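for the recovery benchmark. tokens below, seq after
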């Protein structure tokens, strides 16, 4: 069956006939989205995305509950189906003159084995073992996806939005015959599959940008380990991409074979980080269904998810080896929930801006698309009283339906804090009173001194040895003496090194030893990670640890970039360099009149009592980026003054003017009556009679304001 927006396909298989009910995903690419490529001269080009033939559909299998279908009809039927608790792939065979297709169970698909990180025989890090598991399950029970679909509102009641930017390297571009349109088509198809996998966790993956390195690779992707390439990519994202495209996390697709068996790598829990928000994967084949699991896995690390392995031993997406699963375990749900509850992912709560959405503008997809005022999903699942799910319009009287600056369907008042500062180097943001969205996250400029000028701010965090030691070994842990760093890090082993190159630990030169593996003292034995060693350096016990999280997860026990390693020096890329390389370029005295600090945009964030943009006039603090730092009560105060002072006086004056003749007559009668009473009471004088003097009561002065008020009160209210 066929119509403009709907398709139905009858698929005959050995297990019976399936009727696919599909709905067109209209305008899959937003009208204003641009595909970034590079010209022959290396100049960045932004061209409108082409959507000549619409061939993307979503739907269900008729008669099968909780079924899901995501298909492309561009070249036959190609996509994924979730039927009866199992995932299936569908695609046409490479050589077929008729409309034949292959339907196969994805879990049974065989491919080249790869690992994501945990090495054979290694022990899981203690921080993983201690994670609480709230749910029980077995491979014979209801599928993890079905359980998550039922429990997602209990786990994460608020939808999360991941704004993903994908970069495709030059090698993959060549594998697609140097055709940017072909790269775009397969990438959109890939992320469409990934998005479907995350729906069970109440997470929406939104593709906000795509860049293809059509001229050459802009970082080296063939030299070094996966960790080396990941470090280069996040550095490029930080210095180049984020300056022109806002995103929560970036992913690089590399057209090459694996890195010694590892086809992906990611930082853990860095989805909103400007410096480490990234992941990579290798792709040298055209099996996009299978690669979607790899991308979903690495993105899961960015979202705070660890490997399932021993906690949830069945086959799930976050298992350390490829098993073909398209389902997340409840352990992954626990990890993501803990990540959010512990303050992570603060960028995931704001729905993506309409102009950034690289997505199908359809009412009911939980994304506020062009010409929509809100979108709370399908009518049967929407519980938002501010949004009409059928029309994606705000309900009568509502100003907003979602966002950090929306409460009870109304904009929060200007000055209401919508994102609190998380560190001494972070800065708060405030609502502006006219939108539901919180301003972009800003922080103190990199390189600004902190901790009594003993440390530096770096991407919103005051980086110090002590704080990092406490984060790993518990409260009270402190930086070990410099001799501990020198003796350990010049060895170049798992407990002392300056990173890895080509799978081999690098020895630290003495001058850079403070920027290698972290060395701590005053460590509590109860907080030791699984793999830890202690060395005696000049009578001091120095502890270091190796997390062994796998080849796809960088070691968190390396000294953080931005950490002070000497006077006017800081660590960057395992080297102790001049602190000016952190990028601090603000003269606070000249620019902010010594009444504030510079944020990461180079603008002044003024102290309380001073007003932006230059902190040279009185005000309430904040910056041009943070929103107003003062709650605007002018409307409330004005209404109070009007209703309790201006309005009563106006009413009283109007009544007095309207009844002025009656008031004048009453006042005159009262005055004459008092005068007669006084004359009648005057004592008579006789001969020889003594005359006694005293106070004589005179008429009240009619010009006395208090007298007039008393008489007006008596006239209108009566005598008490």
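predicted aa per position
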């Amino acid at each position: 069956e066929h119509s403009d927006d709907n398709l139905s396909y009858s698929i005959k298989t050995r297990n019976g006939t399936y009727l696919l009910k599909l709905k067109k995903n209209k305008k899959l690419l937003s009208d204003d989205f641009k595909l970034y490529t590079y010209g022959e001269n290396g100049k960045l080009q932004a061209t409108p995305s082409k959507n000549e033939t619409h061939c993307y559909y979503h739907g269900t299998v008729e008669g099968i509950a909780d079924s899901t279908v995501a298909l492309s009809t561009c070249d036959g039927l190609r996509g994924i189906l979730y039927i009866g608790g199992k995932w299936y792939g569908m695609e046409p065979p490479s050589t077929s003159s008729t409309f034949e297709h292959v339907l196969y169970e994805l879990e049974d698909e065989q491919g080249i084995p790869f690992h994501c990180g945990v090495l054979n025989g290694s022990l899981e890090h203690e921080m993983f073992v201690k994670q609480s598991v709230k749910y029980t399950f077995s491979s014979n029970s209801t599928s993890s996806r079905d359980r998550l679909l039922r429990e997602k509102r209990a786990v994460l009641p608020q939808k999360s939005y991941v704004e993903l930017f994908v970069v495709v390297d030059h090698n993959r571009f060549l594998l697609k015959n140097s055709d940017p349109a072909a790269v775009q088509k397969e990438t959109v198809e890939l992320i469409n599959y990934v998005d479907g996998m995350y729906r069970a966790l109440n997470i929406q993956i939104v593709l906000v940008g795509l860049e293809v390195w059509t001229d050459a690779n802009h970082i080296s992707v063939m030299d070094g380990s996966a960790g080396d390439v990941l470090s280069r990519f996040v550095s490029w994202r930080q210095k180049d991409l984020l300056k022109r495209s806002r995103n929560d996390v970036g992913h690089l697709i590399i057209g090459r074979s694996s890195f010694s068996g590892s086809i992906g790598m990611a930082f853990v829990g860095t989805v909103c980080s400007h410096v480490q928000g990234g992941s990579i994967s290798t792709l040298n084949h055209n099996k996009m269904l299978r690669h979607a699991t790899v991308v979903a896995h690495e993105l899961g690390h960015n979202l705070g998810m660890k490997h399932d392995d021993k906690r949830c031993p069945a086959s799930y997406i976050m298992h350390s080896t490829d098993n073909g699963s398209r389902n997340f375990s409840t352990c992954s749900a626990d990890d993501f929930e803990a990540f959010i509850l512990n303050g992570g992912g603060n960028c995931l709560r704001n729905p993506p801006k309409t102009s950034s959405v690289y997505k199908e503008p359809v009412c009911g997809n939980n994304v506020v698309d062009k010409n929509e005022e809100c979108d709370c999903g399908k009518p049967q699942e929407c519980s938002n009283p501010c949004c009409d799910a059928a029309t994606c319009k705000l309900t009568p009287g509502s100003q907003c339906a979602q966002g950090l600056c929306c409460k009870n369907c109304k904009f929060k008042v200007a000055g209401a804090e919508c994102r609190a500062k998380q560190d001494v180097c972070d800065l708060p943001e405030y609502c502006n009173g006219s939108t539901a969205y919180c301003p972009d996250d800003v922080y103190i400029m990199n390189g600004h001194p902190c901790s009594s000028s003993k440390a530096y701010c770096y991407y919103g965090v005051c980086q110090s040895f002590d704080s990092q030691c406490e984060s790993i070994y518990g409260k009270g842990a402190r930086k070990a003496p410099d001799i501990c760093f020198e003796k350990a890090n010049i060895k170049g082993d798992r407990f002392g090194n300056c990173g890895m190159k080509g799978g081999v630990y690098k020895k630290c030169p003495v001058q850079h030893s403070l920027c290698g593996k972290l060395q701590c003292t005053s460590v509590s034995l109860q907080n030791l990670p699984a793999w830890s060693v202690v060395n005696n350096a000049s009578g001091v016990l120095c502890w270091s640890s190796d997390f062994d999280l796998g080849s796809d997860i960088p070691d968190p026990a390396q000294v953080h970039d931005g950490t002070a390693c000497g006077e006017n020096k800081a660590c960057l890329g395992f080297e102790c360099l001049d602190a000016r390389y952190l990028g601090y370029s603000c003269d606070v005295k000249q620019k902010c009149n010594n009444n504030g600090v510079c944020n990461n945009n180079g603008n002044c964030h003024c102290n309380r009592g001073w007003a932006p943009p230059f902190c040279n006039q009185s005000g309430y603090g904040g910056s041009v980026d943070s929103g107003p730092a003062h709650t605007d009560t002018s409307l409330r105060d004005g209404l109070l003054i009007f209703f309790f002072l201006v309005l009563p006086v106006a009413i009283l004056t109007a009544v007095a003017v309207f009844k002025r003749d009656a008031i004048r007559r009453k006042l005159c009668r009262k005055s004459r009556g008092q005068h007669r009473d006084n004359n009648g009471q005057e004592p008579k004088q006789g001969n020889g009679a003594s005359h006694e003097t005293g106070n004589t009561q005179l008429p009240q002065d009619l010009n006395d304001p208090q007298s007039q008020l008393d008489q007006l009160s008596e006239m209108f209210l009566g005598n008490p």
